[in-house]
Amino acid sequence: MTIFQKIGKYLMIFLKYFSLVFFSFVAVLPIVSCVITAFKTDTEYQQTNVMVLPESWLNFENFVTAFQKANMGRAFINSLIILVCVLVASVFIGTQLAYVLDRFKFPGNNLIRNLFLFASLLPGVAMQVAVYEIMYNLHFINSLWGYIIMMCGTDVISIYIYIQFFENIDYSLDESGIMDGASYFTIFYKILFPLLKPAIVTSCILKGVGTYNEYYSANLYLQDKKLLPTVATSLYTFVGPLGSKYNLICAGVIISLLPALIVFITCQKQIYSGLTAGAVKG
User: Fold this and answer.
1) Closest among 198, 109, 217 to 158, alpha carbons compared
2) Measuring CA to CA, which residue among 182, 188, 169, 172 is closest to residue 96?
């Protein structure tokens, strides 16, 4: 190995680790600044930059104010109801639809799959005019259950995840169930559905994060911010034309992150197993 090859080798190693450290720093920096800002008083926030440490780390007044004024208690309850209902409905609808598309070959099967792919390419904002008109005619505006029904709409990504897992499950399981006299519903719920646990975990992570962080649709259809706030919309209580109180916003952001952090810490084994199982086919 020549001197130039050694220099090139060590240079590539340096660039690899430097890029990892640099992008990790870029990803962590907003979180650090948010935590620092959340503990600052109004005076500290106005007179210092975002990276200057607060005088006291025991100042929890911003968290109390954010929780009370933003009505975050009600927002957490609404978001929890929405999240549970949407995940349960999307799992049962998505798994059954994927089961039909994979196990039954009928005219139009490929057409339906292609239509799902085409629908996933359409931007959601472009269809909001038609969706809003449908929601208005069904009297689903300012209705928590109407919003839940809308959010339970077909999740194309999850369906393709379920189809991929069904393709890896041997047909002999279906044939054994049929020979034993089991119906298609029994085969699905008793035999195939339990085997979809990794796919369900993966799709619930994707769907759950999107539903919990959804702001545009929640702000558009849940217009009564006192009775129907969600975690995402409640954070905008402190944003106004006369200025924004970012110390309270950062405190609210940290409060909203706590449930997700607790779920991740307690269920990280299942989350990792679901993601790694969903990343390999065959």
Assistant:
1) 198
2) 188
Note if the pTM is more than 0.70.
yes
Distance (Å, rounded) from C-alpha 52 to C-alpha 43? 13
DSSP conformation letters of 188-226: IIIIIGGGGHHHHHHHHHHHHHHHHT--HHHHHH---TT
Tokens of 6: 């050694």
Structure token digits, residue 138: 């069904």
Is 131 buried (19+), middle (13-18) or exposed (0-12) by CB count in 10 A?
A: middle
Q: How long a stretch of residues is the chain?
A: 282
Q: What is the pLDDT of residues 162-203, one digit of tens each?
A: 888 888 888 888 888 888 888 888 888 888 888 888 888 888
Beta strands in the chain (DSSP E): 239-240, 243-244
Look up residue 113 and give its two tokens.
């799959």
User: Are 233 and 213 in contact, with CB atoms under 8 Å apart?
Assistant: no
> Which tokens is 155 given?
């999740």
